[in-house]
């Protein structure tokens, strides 16, 4: 079976309002790599998750920082 990509897992997880721990477990399960705080893009995503922001808000912050949005 094909596993979903990292961005798809992140998009669905954030939209579902999952916790940071739950998202980490899903990323590990999908073999998509964990969120790495030293990565500029990942740190913005982690901030959004910790602040319970929606996907649109996280994508807006990513655009402001010049990073690739979650599609």
Secondary-structure blueprint of this entry?
Blueprint lengths: L5 H11 L3 H10 L10 H11 L4 H10 L7
Notes on the structure:
Helices cover 59% and strands 0% of the residues. By secondary structure, the chain is an all-alpha fold. Helix 1 packs antiparallel against helix 2 (20-29) and helix 3 runs antiparallel to helix 4 (55-64).
Q: Gist?
A:
The protein has helices at about 5-15, 20-30, 40-50, 55-65.
What proportion of the residues form beta strands (DSSP E)? under 5%
Structural class: mainly alpha
Terminal CA distance reads 21 Å
Shape: globular
Secondary-structure element order, N to C: HHHH
Q: Rg from C-alpha positions?
A: 11 Å
- Average residue-wise pLDDT: 95
Q: Roughly what percent helix?
A: 55-70%
Count of helical regions:
4
Number of strands: 0
Specify the biggest β-sheet. none
Low-confidence stretches: none
């Amino acid at each position: 079976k094909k596993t979903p990509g990292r961005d798809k897992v992140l998009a669905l997880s954030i939209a579902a309002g999952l916790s940071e721990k739950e998202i980490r477990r899903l990323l590990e399960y999908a073999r998509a790599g964990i969120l790495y705080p030293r990565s500029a893009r990942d740190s913005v995503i982690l901030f959004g998750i910790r602040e319970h922001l929606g996907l649109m808000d996280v994508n807006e912050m990513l655009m402001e920082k010049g990073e690739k949005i979650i599609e």
